[in-house]
Structures are given as C-alpha cells and as structure tokens.
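Handout, section B. The chain below has 221 residues.
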Amino acid sequence: MLHVMSYALVDTLNILLIGVVVAAGVMLPAAEKGGRYGRVATLLILGDWLGVLVLALLSLLVFDGIGDAVGTFVDSPVFGILLILTGVFIAVMAWRGGDDAALIERILGPLRTPTVATFGTGFVLGLVQSVTSGPFFAGILVMSAGDFTVVTRYVGMIGYACVALSLPFLTALVVGYVRRRPYSRLGRGFAVMQRNRATVARGAGYLGAVLLTLLGITHLL
C-alpha cells in the first residue's frame, strides 16, 4: 500500500492547483483575516479532492475489469520503462517552462465568493489534472494489480485522493497563515517564493521527474 501511495505523492506536486490557491489568497481582501478566503479554499480543495476520488474509483473499476492483463503489464519491464520515460518527459517540460498566469486568471472568476461554482471549479480541476497525470494512473494500476481485497482497493482510493491533495491542502493552510501574518518569517519566505514563482514551479517539476524516474528504476531492479 505504501508503494501505491508513493505515486500519489508524486501527483501531489499539482502546480496549477497550488497556483490557483495562492492567487485566490492574493486576490481576496486581506482585511477579512481569512474569512472569505477560508471558505473559498475549503470549497476549492474539497471539490478537487472529490474530482480526484471519482476519477480514481472509475479508473480502478476499469482496470479491475481488464483483469490479469493489468497484473501482467505492471509486472513487466515495460511498466518501469514507461515510468522512466514519463519522468524524462516531465523534466523536459519543466526545463522548457511556461506561464500559466492567464489560465489561473480565468479560473479565478468563480473563486471571488464561496459558492457552488467554487466547489465545481475544484471538481473540474481535479478531473482535468488527474486525467493528464501519468503518476496518478500508474498508482491505480499498481493498486489494481496488487494482492489487496476489493474493500481495501476501493476504500484505499480515499486515502489515495487525500495524499494526492496533501501539498495543495498544506499550501492553502500556509496562505491562510501568511494572510494573517504577512511579516512573519514564513510570510517573508513565501514572498520570496512568489517573486521566484517560475523557478519554484520548475523545481517542483524536476522533483516530480526524479521521483517518478526512481520509481521506474526501482521497478526494473
């Protein structure tokens, strides 16, 4: 099970969602001392978590339906090679960089007030980010191929979604703290990271690439 969750840890490097959380923290009035921001961040994260969970359960259902072919694929060297190639691809994309500011700006519309649309935005983000994530599906493949009971596999997806959202959740807490104490040591450090957002995003991409490559190498050994 810990091996399965390691893929969710790679998936938690969700730069887009983290960027949206930070942007919401900057956009909403600081005078509210976290009031509206807290509700917006909660709805956004919960929506994203549900989107991840729904896709995880559906993916597991499909993989379980395929049967022994999934186990054969996961046990083969091809699976490890694909993990390594995905890690290399992520590293290349991180090196090339990119500015997601325009996309984040479009997403911020429903986040100005805590509404059902805020939750829906998070849900869609969770689906889209997971659909485009190799580590996300790799972990579910390993879960499906593992020697787990049906209950363990499907209930385990709740934990899988929680781990996948752990870094965005921690980021939301940090942003809330910084809004209250912008001149604290944490606030000053956060401001430095904000000024070097592209470098931080690139570093997160490299970290995800390294972790995924290591998982692929470990699989081949």
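Note. The chain has one domain: 2-220. Compare this with the example in section A.
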